[in-house]
Amino acid sequence: MSSGFRKVAMGVLVTLGMASSWPAEAEMRVVSRSGQWAAVAGTTENGRMSCAMAARGANETMLVFQFFEGEGVLTVRSIGSRWESLANDRVRVAMSIDGSGTWSASALARRSILQFQIADTSLREFETAFRRGRQV
């Protein structure tokens, strides 16, 4: 796991009240909240612009959608202790919104984070489904 990834993930965790300290190098700030969701934006410790939406779930879990400047993909992370047993494994994942349109990917499990990406060719379709959806 890259240092930048850890620090940005920590920034999102702090934003949602799931960690005790903000990394000095990252400058991510809450720009909006709605229910369980928080939107954050700013720069990573290496100066890249980033924005994310994150929702806190039960049992210290979190779902994060994050975009990094210069990348044509949306990074999706599921954070929670249930992934710890999969350390450094690749696993197939599928995500569906309101039971329609499934996004499949090969995810990497590291520590308590399961991460995969949605390619730029699918972003418009995913964004529309997510915006209109009620349940992931």
Would you kindly provide a written description of the structure presented here, covering whatever features stand out?
With about 140 residues, the protein is an alpha+beta fold. The protein is about 20% helix and about 45% strand. It is built from two helices and eight strands; from the N terminus they run H-E-E-E-E-E-E-E-E-H. The protein has helices at about 5-15, 120-130, and strands spanning about 25-35, 35-45, 50-55, 60-70, 75-80, 90-95, 100-110, 115-120. An eight-stranded antiparallel β-sheet has the order 1-2-3-4-5-8-7-6, with helices on both faces. The longest helix has 13 residues, at about 5-15. The chain is globular, with a radius of gyration of 14 Å. The model is unreliable at about 1-10 and about 15-25 (pLDDT under 50).
Query: Which percent band covers the strand fraction?
Result: over 45%
The H-and-E topology, N to C, reads as: HEEEEEEEEH
Q: Would you tell me the structural class of the helices and strands?
A: alpha+beta
Q: What is the makeup of the main sheet?
A: 8 strands, antiparallel
Low-confidence stretches: 1-11, 13-24
Q: Mean pLDDT across all residues, rounded?
A: 78
Inertia-based shape: globular
Helix content: 10-25%
In whole angstroms, how far apart are the ends? 26 Å
SS field, number of helical segments: 2
Radius of gyration of CA atoms, rounded to a whole number: 14 Å
The side-by-side strand order for the widest beta sheet comes to 1-2-3-4-5-8-7-6
Features:
alpha+beta; eight-stranded antiparallel β-sheet
Short précis:
By secondary structure, this protein is of the alpha+beta class.
